[in-house]
Amino acid sequence: xxxxxxxxxxxxxxIGYAIVxxxxxxxxxxVAVTLNDALGSKAYQSLGSPQNVSFVSIDLSSNQAIEKGSxxxxxxxxxxxxxxxxxxxxxxxxxxxxNEQGYEMQFQVNHLAIMNLTLNxxxxxxxxxxxxxxxxxxxxxxxxINFDDLMLRKKYFLFSAYxxxxxxxxxxxxxxxxxxxxxxxxxxLVDPRLVNTRIAETNTRGIIRLFWSIRRRFGQDxxxxxxxxxxxxxxxxxxxxxxxxxxxxQVEPSNYGKDEQIAKRFWEASEKLIK
Amino acid sequence: MPKDSGKxxxxxxxxxALVTGASGxxxxxxxxxxxxxxxxxxxxxxxxxxLDYFAHNLLLMDHQMVKTFECDxxxxxxxxxxxxxLINNEIKIDMLINNAGYDYEGWFKKASHEDTISIAQVxxxxxxxxxxxxxxxxxxxxxxxxxxxxxxxxxMPMKAVYSASKRFIIELTRTLNYELKDDNVHLTVLxxxxxxxxxxxxxxxxxxxxxxxxxxVNFNIVVKKTIDKALKKKEIxxxxxxxxxxxxxxxxxxxxxxxxxxxxxxxRTFE
Lengths: 275, 271
Prior knowledge:
The complex is a heterodimer of chains A (275) and B (271). By secondary structure, chain A is α/β, with parallel strands linked by helices. Chain A has one domain: NAD(P)-binding Rossmann-like Domain (Rossmann fold). Chain A has helices spanning 14-26, 37-46, 63-75, 105-120, 122-128, 158-180, 206-215, 222-234, 255-258, 260-274, and strands at residues 5-9, 29-34, 53-57, 84-87, 131-135, 186-191, 244-246, 249-251. Chain A is globular. By secondary structure, chain B is α/β, with parallel strands linked by helices. Chain B has one domain: Rossmann fold (3-Layer(aba) Sandwich). In chain B, strand 5 (138-147), helix 5 (160-179) and strand 6 (185-190) form a beta-alpha-beta unit. In chain B, helix 1 crosses helix 8 (219-231) and helix 4 (113-134) packs parallel to helix 5. The longest helix of chain B has 22 residues, at 113-134. Chain B is globular and about 55 Å long. The A-B interface holds A 61, 64, 93-98, 100-102, 105, 144-149, 153-156, 203, 205-206, 255-256, 259, 261-262, 272-273, 275 and B 1-2, 4-8, 23, 25, 28-29, 31-33, 36, 50, 53-54, 57, 59, 196-199, 201-202, 205-206, 210, 213, 216, 218-221, 224.
C-alpha cells in the first residue's frame, strides 16, 4: 500500500484520536496536532509511541500560532508533500470568549483555523495533489451566515454558533474546490452524525454539560467513524459533487452551503480576518 | 438565492473614544463595540505589538480612525505623549474607557512588593491620571466609563488591595458625577462579577460551581449594555440580576462578619 503524508488536528481525543490510531497502525507518516505538548505526549503515549506519528502543538485559537505551527508541520515532511489534511479540532464553549484578535472562539477554531491552516499548507498539498477533509454536521442545514455579525457579538448561543461554524465548513470546502480544483486538490466534508466524544463537555457546564454527557452515549464509537475518513483517504479522488459525505456516501449539503455568491463573499471576509 | 439576515446600516459618528488596556479581553470588546457604533478610537496598551495585531484587523468604515499607543498609564511621560498628540491634532474626546487594571489574588504577605504596589498604581493612580487629564481635551460632552468590580463593594480577603482599589473607583465615580455635572461630564462605573473572556477564566468559573454559573454573564452583552447605560447617564452598572440581589443582601451583613465569611470561602481556593 502507498503510504501517505497525513496531518490531523484535534487528536487529543474523539474522532481525531481515532483516526490517528488507525493511521498509526497502517504506517502512514502522520503529524498529529494538539493544543499543547502535555496533551500531545499523553496521546502519543496512549497510542504506544508509534514511530510513524509525530505530535505538534498548535493553539488553533491563535492565527499567529497557526502560521508558526505550519512551519513546524512542514519541517516534518522531507519530501515537501502533504497528501491529506484532516480537520477534526473543534470547540463548543458555553460562553462568548474571544482570541487575541477579538474573534469569537468557535468562529476562530471551527472555521478560521481550518481555512488558515489549509492555506498555509496549500503548497505542500498542491505538490502531492492531495485532499483536505473537514468535519461538518447536519446541523449546518438550519444555519445561515450573518455578514454583519459573523462572530455573534450581538447574541451568542453556543448551539447557534456551532451550527454556523459547521455551515462555514461547507461554504469553505465548496469555495476551496471552486478556487483550487484546477490544481488537482480537493476538499471534502465528512458528516459523522452523532459521535460519542467530549466535544460539548469540555468547556460547558450545568444543564448543557449534562445534556451532552447523556446524549453522546447514543452516538457512534469514534473508531467506527474514523473509517469514513479512511475511506476518503484511500479511494480514488472523486471530483464529482457533492463533496459532502455521510456514512461513506455522497449527500447534498444545504443549498445555502452550496451558494456560490455567499461562499465567495464569506471566503473573502474570512480571508481578511486571517491576514 | 438565500438572503443575508440582519442587515443594518452603520454610520460614522464624528466622535472620539479613548480606551485604556485595549488589548485585553474586555478592552478589545469595548473597542469592537465602539468601532461598530462609529466612533474613532484611540487605543492604549502596554504591549504595542499585541495591540497592533488586534487593531490591524478591525473592520472599519470609510474614514474611521484608529490610533494605537504604547502606554503604561502609570508612566506619566507615556501618558503625556498621548495627550500631546490629542492636543496637537485638536482631537476632542467624547468617551473615555478606563479599562486598564491590575490584579493579584492571594495572601497579602505572600504577594511581591511589585505586585502589591502595581495594583494601586494602575487601578488608582493610573485611572486618576487619565480622568484628570482628559478634562483638558474633552468634547462638549464627555462620558467616562470606569471598569471596577463587584469586589469593590466588599472587603475581600485574598484580594485586599484589589478590592480597595476598586472601592476607590466606585466612590470617585459617585463624587465626580456631582462635581463635574455642570461641565457635561458623566461617569459610569461597571462592577462585574466573574466574566469569562478567555478559556482559563472559564475553568475558574467552573470551579466556583453553581454560583459561578448563575452569576456569569457573556461579556459582549455586558460591554454593549455598559455603553448604553453610560449614554443614558446611569451611574452604576452591575451585570446579572443575581449579582445585584446578592450585593443587596450582603450589604445587610456587618462588615466584620462579611470579611470572615468571604475569607473562609476564598481561603479554600488558595490552599
